[in-house]
Specification:
Elements (H helix, E strand, L loop, with lengths): L1 H4 L7 E2 L5 E2 L9 H40 L16 E4 L5 E5 L15 H10 L11 H13 L10 H10 L6 H17 L2 H11 L9 H9 L8 H9 L13 H17 L5 H9 L13 H16 L6 E5 L3 H22 L3 E7 L5 E5 L11 H4 L9 H10 L7 E4 L18 E4 H6 L3 H11 L1 H11 L20 H13 L9 E6 L4 E4 L11 H16 L14 E6 L5 E7 L4 E7 L14 H13 L22 H15 L84 H6 L3
Parallel strand pairs: 3-5
Antiparallel strand pairs: 1-2, 3-4, 5-10, 6-7, 6-14, 8-9, 10-11, 12-13, 13-14
Length: 751
C-alpha cells in the first residue's frame, strides 16, 4: 500500500466558529485590472510603433534631403544671384518717366522704407518670421489644420525665407523635390544672412505682377510713386498681392485687391504692428491704383531710349539713371492731342493710327508719341514707320531751287505736264497758270513742284534732303518732288529743324546723360551739330514761303496766337497718309496720320486732322515760353529773267523729261508778273488747295497799306562763325556791329 502512504489528505484548520474548511487560496483578480493591463499594452505598442515610424521617417527624410541636397550646387559655391539691373528713365526736369529692365524698378534699402511696409508682409505672410530658423513647423502645422478644417481659407506653410529661396534659386513648379530643396536653401539663407538682410532681399526680389519685381517697381507701377512714400493702405495692397499677383492686381481687380488689403490690415492690428484706430483709418482711406500706367505714350519714348542706350554705353551690368530730353508736360500734351482728335474724328475719316514728334532747335526730342494706344500696339510709328510724305517733301525741292538761283517771287507755270507719260495733276485737276513759288508752295501745287524739281534735277533734290537730315534712301526720279520716297516722322521733323534754327543741321537725340545709381557719370552729351546746312538768306526765303502756308495756304486752319509759325502739309496718293510739319523759333513738331495696313483713309489730308492736332499740341507745349521769331531777313527781289546762256540748257533739260520742244516758261520779275487767267473753281474740301477765286500776281503793297516793321538783320540770327559749313553753300557777307545776341546764339553759343 505504498501508494496510500504517499497520499496527501486534505487539511482542515479550526476557525473561530469551529467549522472545518479547505486551505485558503488568493482571491481571483477583478476583470478591470485585466482591461487596464490590456490598455497599457496597446498604448505602449502605439508609442513603440510611432517611435519606430518616426525614426524611419526621419531616416527617409534625411535620405531625401541628402539626395535632393546633392543635386544643389555646393554650399561653398552658393551665392545670391545678382539682381538684374534697372534702368530709371527721367525727363529733362528729373521726373521719373519709366523703369526698364527685368525687374521694372530700382532696389531700395529696408531702412528707407516706412516701418509699416515690411510689417505688412510679415503679418500676412510669415507672422513668426523673427522666431523661426528658415522653416516654421508650427506655421506648417497651423496651415495644415486650417486647410483641413476650411477655416481662414487655403494657406501655405512657406516662410518668407522659403519664398525668397524659391525666387532666387528655384523654379515655380510645385513638387516634393522643390519643397525639399526650398527648405534646405532657406536654412542656408538663415545661416548666411541676418533677418533684416533676408527681408530686404525679399522685398526687392519678389514678383508683384505686371512685370514688376520688387516693392519699388510695384509702387511705381500701381501708384505712380516710389516705395519710400507709399501709404499704409498702399502697403497693404502690395502685401496682399503675394497671394495671387495677377488675380489681385489693383488696376485690374480693385475690389479683390481692396478685400485682400483689408485682411492684411486686420492681421497687422492683430499682431500689434498698428493700433485699432490706425487700422480703422487705413480701411476708410483705401488705396487707388493708376490704371493708365503701362498704356501711356511715354512708353514709346522709353522704348526708343532703350534702343539708343545700347549704342551709347554698351552692356548694362548695374542700376543706372538715364536723363533724357523728353519734357513730360509736352509728352502728355502730344498724347492728349492725338488721342482726342482720333477719338472724335478718327472713325469719320477712316484713320486708326498716328504719331507725333517734337524737337527743339538743337535736335533734342521733347515729345515722341509712336501710336494711338501703347497697350494695344507697341510698334513705334514715330521712329520706325516709313511712309510717303507727299507734299510735306516739297520744301526740299524749293530750297534746291533757291540755292540754284530762284527766289520766292520767281514765277512758274501751273499747268498740265507730261513727263514721259507721267502726268502729275493738282488735286482739283484745275490750274492757276503763272504763279510765284511762294504761292505754289503755300497752295501745294503739284505741277509747279515737279517743274522746279526737273529744273534743278532729282538728284540735287535728294542730296538737299539728305543734307538736312533725311536718312532714308530716296528715289531720284521726277516723282521725288511729290514725296513718293518713304521717310519716318522723326527724320522728316529733323530735316525741317534747320529752317527753325537758322540753317544748322541737327542730330535728333533723346539721351542727355547716364549715371550709375551711386552717381558716377557714364555718359554726358556734348553740344554737337551737323554744321551749317542752309545759307542764312535761303533760310529767310523758305521761312517766308512756308509762313504763307499757315496764313493763306493749305495749313490756314492752324491756330497759334502770338507766335510766328511756318510749315507744310502733306497728303500721299489715295489719302493713305496725312502730314503736317510746323515750327516756331522754339519748337518743331510733325504729325502723321494713317493706317498700319496702308489702306486709304476717308479723305484725311494734311490740311485737316494733322493741322488740328498740331495746333492743340503746340498751344499747350509753348504755353509760358517767351515768344521767339523765326530766322528772317531782307532779300532783294530782282528781275530774275534768265539769260539765254542759262535758259537754253534749262529748256533742253525739261524737254529731256517732258518730250516737249517748246521752251520752258521764262520767269519774269515777280513785281511785274503777268496777270494769270482766272482758274476754274476749286472744291472747298481740297486737301492741299484751299478755295481760290483768282490767283493774283505779286505786286507792291498799296501805298495806304499799314507799314511793315523793318526786317531783322539776318546776321542777328546767325550762329557763330566757327560752325563748319556742310557742302558748297554760299555764305552771305556779314554785317558788322550787330549789337544784340539772338536766340540761336544762346542755343549754340558764341558771341
Amino acid at each position: 500500500m505504498a501508494r496510500s502512504d504517499k497520499r496527501r489528505e486534505p487539511r482542515f484548520d479550526d476557525d473561530e466558529d469551529g467549522e472545518l474548511r479547505a486551505e485558503r487560496r488568493p482571491p481571483p483578480r477583478p476583470r478591470a485590472r485585466k482591461k487596464s493591463r490590456r490598455s497599457r499594452s496597446l498604448f505602449g505598442a502605439l508609442i513603440y510603433w510611432s517611435f519606430t515610424l518616426a525614426l524611419w521617417g526621419a531616416i527617409a527624410g534625411g535620405g531625401l534631403a541628402v539626395y535632393y541636397g546633392a543635386r544643389l550646387p555646393p554650399i561653398d559655391q552658393l551665392a545670391v544671384p545678382k539682381r538684374p539691373p534697372n534702368i530709371a528713365i527721367l525727363d529733362a526736369n528729373g521726373e521719373l518717366l519709366a523703369n526698364r529692365g527685368d525687374t521694372g524698378g530700382a532696389a531700395v534699402r529696408l531702412a528707407d522704407l516706412p516701418p509699416y511696409v515690411p510689417k505688412a508682409f510679415i503679418a500676412i505672410e510669415d507672422r513668426r518670421f523673427y522666431s523661426h530658423w528658415g522653416v516654421d513647423p508650427i506655421g506648417i502645422g497651423r496651415a495644415i489644420v486650417r486647410n483641413v478644417t476650411g477655416r481662414g481659407g487655403m494657406q501655405g506653410g512657406s516662410t518668407l525665407t522659403q519664398q525668397l529661396a524659391k525666387n532666387l534659386f528655384l523654379t515655380q513648379e510645385r513638387t516634393i523635390s522643390r519643397k525639399i530643396q526650398e527648405a534646405i536653401l532657406a536654412l542656408w539663407l538663415e545661416h548666411k544672412y541676418s533677418k533684416d538682410q533676408i527681408l530686404e532681399l525679399y522685398l526687392n526680389r519678389v514678383y508683384f505682377g505686371s512685370g514688376a519685381y520688387g516693392v519699388e517697381a510695384a509702387a511705381e507701377r500701381y501708384f505712380g510713386h516710389g516705395a519710400k512714400t507709399i501709404t499704409l493702405s498702399e502697403a497693404a495692397v502690395l502685401a496682399g498681392l503675394m497671394k495671387a499677383p495677377s488675380k489681385l492686381a489693383p488696376d485690374r481687380n480693385p475690389e479683390g485687391a481692396a478685400e485682400r488689403a483689408a485682411q492684411v490690415i486686420a492681421a497687422m492690428a492683430q499682431e500689434g504692428h498698428i493700433s485699432e484706430s490706425t487700422a480703422t483709418t487705413a480701411l476708410s482711406h483705401s488705396a487707388r491704383a493708376r490704371s493708365d500706367i503701362g498704356a501711356g505714350s511715354i512708353n514709346y519714348a522709353a522704348d526708343y531710349v532703350m534702343d539708343m542706350l545700347d549704342d551709347t554705353i554698351g552692356a548694362i551690368d548695374q542700376d543706372i539713371v538715364v536723363t533724357t530730353t523728353i519734357d513730360a508736360r509736352m509728352e502728355m500734351a502730344a498724347e492728349g492731342a492725338l488721342k482726342q482728335e482720333l477719338d472724335e474724328k478718327g472713325a469719320k475719316f477712316g484713320v486708326a493710327q498716328g504719331a507725333i514728334v517734337a524737337l527743339d532747335p538743337t535736335g533734342a526730342i521733347r515729345a515722341l508719341v509712336g501710336g494711338r494706344d501703347y497697350s494695344a500696339s507697341q510698334f513705334n510709328r514715330a521712329v520706325s514707320a516709313k511712309r510717303q510724305p507727299g507734299s510735306a517733301f516739297k520744301p526740299f525741292v524749293y530750297l534746291t531751287g533757291l540755292e540754284q538761283g530762284l527766289t520766292p517771287e520767281s514765277v512758274r507755270e501751273d499747268g498740265p505736264l507730261d513727263v514721259k507719260g507721267w502726268r502729275p495733276e493738282n488735286y482739283s485737276r484745275q490750274y492757276l497758270g503763272p504763279v510765284t513759288l511762294t504761292k505754289a508752295l503755300s497752295l501745294s501745287l503739284n505741277t509747279v513742284a515737279v517743274r522746279v524739281g526737273l529744273e534743278v534735277g532729282p538728284k540735287a533734290v535728294a542730296k538737299t534732303a539728305h543734307r538736312l537730315g533725311v536718312q532714308s534712301d530716296l528715289q531720284a526720279n521726277a516723282s521725288i518732288a511729290l514725296g513718293t520716297s518713304e521717310v519716318t516722322p522723326l527724320e522728316l521733323v529733323a530735316a525741317y529743324t534747320p529752317f527753325a534754327n537758322g540753317g544748322i543741321g541737327v542730330q535728333p537725340h533723346v539721351i542727355l546723360k547716364v549715371k550709375t545709381a551711386a552717381g558716377k557719370t557714364l555718359y554726358q552729351r556734348k553740344n554737337a551739330s551737323l554744321g551749317r546746312v542752309i545759307a542764312p538768306q535761303y533760310v529767310a526765303m523758305m521761312n517766308d514761303m512756308m509762313r504763307e502756308t499757315l496764313l493763306t495756304g493749305t495749313a490756314r486752319k492752324a491756330e497759334l496766337p502770338g507766335w510766328n509759325a511756318a510749315g507744310k502739309t502733306g497728303t500721299s496718293q489715295d489719302f493713305r497718309d496725312a502730314w503736317f510739319v510746323g515750327y516756331t523759333g522754339r519748337l518743331v513738331a510733325g504729325v502723321w496720320l494713317g493706317n498700319d495696313d496702308n489702306s486709304p483713309t476717308k479723305k484725311a489730308s494734311g490740311g485737316n486732322l494733322p493741322v488740328e492736332i498740331w495746333s492743340r499740341f503746340m498751344s499747350v507745349a509753348l504755353k509760358g515760353q517767351p515768344v521767339a521769331g523765326l530766322p528772317s531777313g531782307a532779300w532783294r527781289s530782282e528781275n530774275i529773267a534768265l539769260p539765254e546762256s542759262i535758259a537754253k540748257p534749262m529748256d533742253d533739260l525739261i524737254g529731256l523729261f517732258t518730250g516737249e520742244s517748246r521752251p520752258a516758261p521764262r520767269p519774269q520779275s515777280a513785281r511785274t508778273a503777268p496777270t494769270p487767267r482766272p482758274p476754274a473753281p476749286i472744291p472747298a474740301d481740297s486737301p492741299e488747295q484751299p478755295p481760290v477765286a483768282q490767283a493774283q500776281p505779286a505786286s507792291p503793297a498799296p501805298r495806304d497799306a499799314p507799314p511793315r516793321s523793318p526786317p531783322r538783320a539776318i546776321d542777328d540770327l546767325l550762329p557763330p562763325e566757327d560752325i563748319p559749313t556742310v557742302g558748297s553753300i554760299e555764305r552771305p557777307r556779314q554785317r558788322r556791329g550787330a549789337p544784340d545776341r539772338s536766340i540761336f546764339e544762346d542755343l549754340f553759343g558764341g558771341g
